[in-house]
Design brief:
Helix content is about 40%, strand content about 15%. It has about 350 residues and is α/β, with parallel strands linked by helices. The protein has an eight-stranded parallel barrel, surrounded by six helices. The radius of gyration is 19 Å and the shape is globular.
Length: about 350
């Protein structure tokens, strides 16, 4: 590292070195020949006694393709390659210090099937004692007229309970100029209530947005807006006893943290070319308030240019779980890059 920045040199992470083509292809074989494998594996997983081990969480998010979001930087289909997407997500979730994974039903079933295949080879499952969270609403497909009404088209509370998951994640976009916002907020409130009644956790992501001239949405991340978003999202449902908020980092995070007593997970935002901006934001956020309890992050860990997702995840975990400085986090980065590439070999 020179001048505080990481120099990747000739390193380039190759997903195929971590997840073999044969193991990936076996997922479809299991789907066809043994559709009950998902339930069987979910029942065999060893669960944590509590949601957190230290009051903090680092969760990898994998739900973008479920909303037709596949673009990454200048490649419109990069996250549409399920082989690479799955390999990168597994690289993160198997990193020491990563607490768990969140995704849509199809993706989480793929992860459970791979866990089943690993277990069948008489190796321990990489999902034992991991937090599993199901994404619930993805029906507001990106670019569709009316996407603000983000329908609940993925996990139901009943399915989450049957799979022994820890909770469900939902989001709503708040556009004061579009009355359809109210429908999605109401659906999220009902989901919070249903999850709480079943003893499951609700992870709620409120995003204030404005329409751009081309029809796309732009997120509003001012302190004033995020303070209001936090207060409104915290009030959803008949109880907030098991509600965690998912809020983007921004300047003035101290005031945002003071808007609620609910635990807050920071989200990552658009993919970066290097890990440093994300690490800086998370380090600042973790110091903003005692209720800032970690991150639920996707592209900024799984797709950081040429880098190994495990290395980025290790650096984020050090900040979340150990209160590491940026310098110490980057030491973790260098130490974990390229480690245990044979973890899924059978």
């Amino acid at each position: 590292m020179s001048g505080g920045r990481l120099n990747s040199g000739d390193y380039h992470f190759d997903p195929e070195e971590f997840l073999s083509k044969e193991l990936f292809d076996a997922i479809t074989d299991v789907r066809v020949e043994e559709p009950n494998a998902v339930l069987k594996e979910a029942e065999r997983l060893r669960k944590r006694p509590n949601l957190t081990t230290d009051g903090r969480l680092m969760i990898v998010a994998t739900d973008h393709p479920g909303r037709r979001v596949t673009a990454l930087r200048n490649d419109p289909l990069r996250m549409g390659n399920r082989y690479e997407y799955l390999a990168r997500a597994l690289r993160v979730v198997t990193t020491p210090g990563c607490d768990g994974i969140m995704g849509t039903a199809d993706f989480m079933e793929e992860v459970l099937i791979l866990s089943h295949l690993i277990r069948e080879s008489e190796r321990p499952s990489f999902l034992d004692e991991k937090v599993l969270i199901g994404c619930m609403n993805r029906g507001g497909f990106a670019g569709v007229k009316g996407e603000i009404d983000d329908r609940f088209t993925s996990f139901s509370v009943r399915r989450l309970k049957r799979l022994r998951f820890d909770g469900g994640k939902m989001m709503y976009r708040f556009d004061p100029d579009d009355e359809r916002t109210i429908k999605c907020i109401s659906d999220c409130a009902q989901a919070v209530t249903e999850l709480n009644r079943e003893g499951l956790y609700a992870f709620v992501e409120p995003l204030s947005v404005r329409r751009k001239p081309n029809g796309d949405y732009e997120n509003i991340k001012t302190t004033e807006t995020l303070v209001k978003d936090a207060g409104a999202a915290a009030a959803l449902g008949e109880s907030s006893a098991r509600t965690w908020l998912k809020l983007p980092y921004s300047e003035g995070y101290e005031r945002i943290a003071r808007a609620t007593t609910l635990p807050i997970l920071m989200l990552g935002g658009p993919a970066q070319e290097t890990p440093e901006p994300t690490l800086q934001a998370f380090a600042s956020g973790m110091e903003a308030g005692s209720n800032v309890r970690g991150v639920m992050v996707g592209r900024n860990v799984t797709f950081v240019h040429k880098e190994d997702p495990r290395a980025v995840a290790a650096a984020v975990s050090a900040i979340v779980h150990e209160g590491a400085t940026i310098e110490d986090a980057m030491e973790c980065f260098r130490r974990e890059r390229g480690q245990e590439m044979d973890l899924l070999k059978i």
